[in-house]
User: What shape does this take?
Amino acid sequence: MLFRIAAAALSGLLLWFTLGLTPVWWVAWIAPIPLLWAVMGAGREARWLCYGAALIGLSGNFSYYLKTTGPVAMVVLTVLQMLAWGFYMDTARRAMARWRTWWVVFVMPVAIAAMDCLITVFSPHGSWGSLGLTQAEFLPVLQVASFAGSAGIVFLMGLFVSVVVMFVVKRWDVEGPVLAYGLPVLLLVAAIVFGYLRLDEAMPKKSVAVGMVAVDRSSGAWSAYAERSRELVKAGAEVLVWPEKIEKAGPERQAWVGRLAAELGVPMVVGVQVEKRNVAWVFNGEGAWIGEYQKQQLVPYLEADLEAGKKDAVYELKGRRFGVAVCRDLFFSGLARRYGLLDVDAMLVPAWDFYQDAWMASAVNTLMAVQSGYSVVRVGRESYLHAVDSYGRVLVQERSAEGAGRGVIARVPAGTRGVSVYSGVGNSFGWLCVALFALFFVLYVLGDARVVEYLTGTSRKGGEGVDTKKRWLD
Assistant: This one.
């Protein structure tokens, strides 16, 4: 028992570097291994070992949850994530104990991918917190998102854990060991090779210079934005993007920004609050206001008093198609995918974060860029000025600043988009994993023979069958 507790504690420590706001990509691949090893052969205590490890891993996020969601939601989020990790480990443990066949190695990765798909689709926070985000800096694996989404990434991570633990526990006591160990290794190697080959594509020669300006204050910040913008235009900026909700604004401020855009001679995207709308104003290079985008995915609890938008927005600026979103809009794969289907060259995203979540917010946008096949320019207050291309390669990443603010230029590829199968098929791989897990569940609860009887319309003669009562719940 002491060994199990120690192994679970080790996984908890590793999960602290996996589930936090700035995860370490390679730790995420090994963090669950000691825990799954510990629960193999365990009884009811297995779930508590899983819950304890997950609680240790999540502990670094408590202050952030409290600040951004409130105390009740903090508890709910923590408990749900603990239950999820208990579900992953317990599912793998039971499957390996129940079957000796080769395909049992896929039960855990299918379960993790299925849960990732459901969370991505139904969570009020979209893809935020997906285990796939831990791989935002491991670009070869990140390329899997271009056809399978984040579910494909977490599938590979779960497969690695599953095959390692299965070999340690069962060795060659498996029906079809070549398939049990060879097929997972082949899939993992193929995914990484695919990623390197995709990244080997040459960077396009044509680009648009997008100026990014952020000032970490509201009061009296307009003059600082104007000054930094003038500097960037002199340095070659062709489009300017400012952050989200710089200030509550009306017609007078809109006219002021229009005059600045005309003075500078470049299109501008500026985030403000107009009455109960969180919007991004868009101006052309002549200073004319050509439209606005209203934020669709408001922050629960913190933006409860605002009205959500319902329309996407695409503008032709400098001869290129730019989509516009605000902050967490691009946390949602459905919305991000719609822009991919609209063939935008890049997304311009005014944002405002909580400083400590800057890396994670940028990572979600990186994932969406690869999934949907376009570049993303995200300009955040109390965050990063962050730009990536459609392969997830970082073009710019600098912290915003107080006082005079920060201004940088991102050379954003134009006219060439990354090929994205995901834009066409969406979460198909994730839903396939949901269906496969449902099949695993039926096989486990009813027993293999009973399922065969049901599917073939035959009945067993002789034999005692298998008592499966309470099998899943024990």
About this structure: The longest strand covers residues 207-214. The domain at 207-424 is CATH 3.60.110.10 (Nitrilase/N-carbamoyl-D-aminoacid amidohydrolase).
